[in-house]
Amino acid sequence: MQSKDLLQLAEQFGNPLYVYDAEKIQSQYNRLSKAFSKVNKLRINYAMKALSNVAILQLLKEMGSGLDTVSIQEVMLGLHAGYDPEKIFYTPNGVSLEEIEEVNAMGVQINIDNLSILEQFGTKYPNVPVCIRINPHVMAGGNANISVGHIDSKFGISVHQLPHLVRIVENTKMNIVGIHMHTGSDILDIEVFLYAAEILFDAAKNFKNLEFLDFGSGFKVPYKKDDIETDIEELGKKLSKRFNAFCVEYGKELTLIFEPGKFLVSEAGFFLAKVNVVKQTTSTVFAGIDSGFNHLIRPMFYGSQHHIENISHPKGKERFYSVVGYICETDTFANNRKISEIKEGDILCFRNAGAYCFSMASNYNSRYKPAEVLWLKGEGHLIRAHETFEDLLKNQIPLPVEFATI
C-alpha cells in the first residue's frame, strides 16, 4: 500500500484507524506454503488470536487455511466465519474441563496441554481423537512474555513427564492422533527450532496412531529497516527433509502443521492516528496523537518497536520526537524517535500493526475502539465500524430508580 492510499482511507473512515492489506496476507501465506512444498501433506492453521476479525478469517479460509484457536469464543467465531469444524484446532490453556467438553461437542480438534485434564478427558471420552501439547523446554522468542518453551512455562506437558503421559494414554485407551509443540514467538535461530523438532520426533515415537505433527509457529517478522527475521526458506529446506525422513521411519505419511499468526498478518497492518498536539518541554518534543495504549498496547506491554512515519509530510526535515497517547498515565509509543517534521493535524502511520494490536485493544478511559478496514483489490472495505457511545453503554445496567439517590 502507498501513503496516498492510507491518507485517503483516513479521510474516508476517520482516525484512529486500522488498515489491513489483503495482498500482503496472501503473499505471506503463499511464501510459507512454498517453503514447505516438498512436504506432501502440509496444513496451515492461522492463529486467530493475532487478529480475529471475521473478514480476515474469511479471507484466509478462501486461501485454504485452517484455524488455531485458544478459546471457545474463537471457535465460535471460526464457525461463524464458515470454517468446517475439522479445520479448527482448539489449544486452550488453563480452561475448565467443561469448556473443553463444550468445544468437543462442536466437532473441532482438541489439543490438551496438561496431565490432569488429559486423564479426565480420556476417561470420559476415550474414542475422541486428541492432540497432546508437549513443552520441549527449548526457549525461543524475544520478550519473556512470548517465550513459552522454558521449564517454568505454564504451557504444555513437560517432555520429562512423557512416561506419566504415556501411562495415562495406555490406561484410558485414548485416541492420540497428533503431537504439538510451541517454543515461543520471534524465533531468530532456526537451529533452536530444529533442535526442538527433534524432541517432538522422539516423543512421537511413543504413539502409534498419529496423523499429524504440529510444530506451532512463532516466526519472527521484520519490524524496522534491515531487521532480522526467521529464514523461512532455510527452515523449510531443512525441516522438510527431516520431516519426510521421520515419516519413512514412522512408517506412515503424516501431515505437517504450522499455526502462524504474526507471520501472516503483522506486516499487513497499518495503524493511522492524527496528531492532536506538538508539545515542547525543556528536553523533549512530544507528538500527542488521538489514540493511546487502549488501541495499541504492544509498545507499553512488550517494549515492542513499531516503525512510525509521518505520511502527511514524508519528505520533511527529520526531527526527534517522543510519540505519546492521550491515556491518563504514562502512554508512550516511541521515545526520541527520528521522524519527518510533525505538525498538528498530520497523520502518523504505525507499521506492523496487524498482529496483537486491535485484538488487544480496550475501552480504557472509556475511549471508543477504532474502525478496521481491509484494503482489497485497490479498495478499502470497512470490516468493523468505529464504536459509538451506545457501544460503551451496551450491557451496562443502571441502578433502579429507588437506589439512584443514595
From TrEMBL:
Enzyme Commission number: 4.1.1.20
Residues the record lists as N6-(pyridoxal phosphate)lysine modifications: 49
Entry-linked PROSITE patterns: ODR_DC_2_1
Pathway noted in the entry: Amino-acid biosynthesis; L-lysine biosynthesis via DAP pathway; L-lysine from DL-2,6-diaminopimelate: step 1/1
Domain of life: Bacteria
Active-site feature positions: 328
The family this protein is said to belong to: Belongs to the Orn/Lys/Arg decarboxylase class-II family. LysA subfamily.
Quaternary structure and interacting proteins, as annotated: Homodimer.
Name under which the protein is recorded: Diaminopimelate decarboxylase
Organism: Flavobacterium xinjiangense
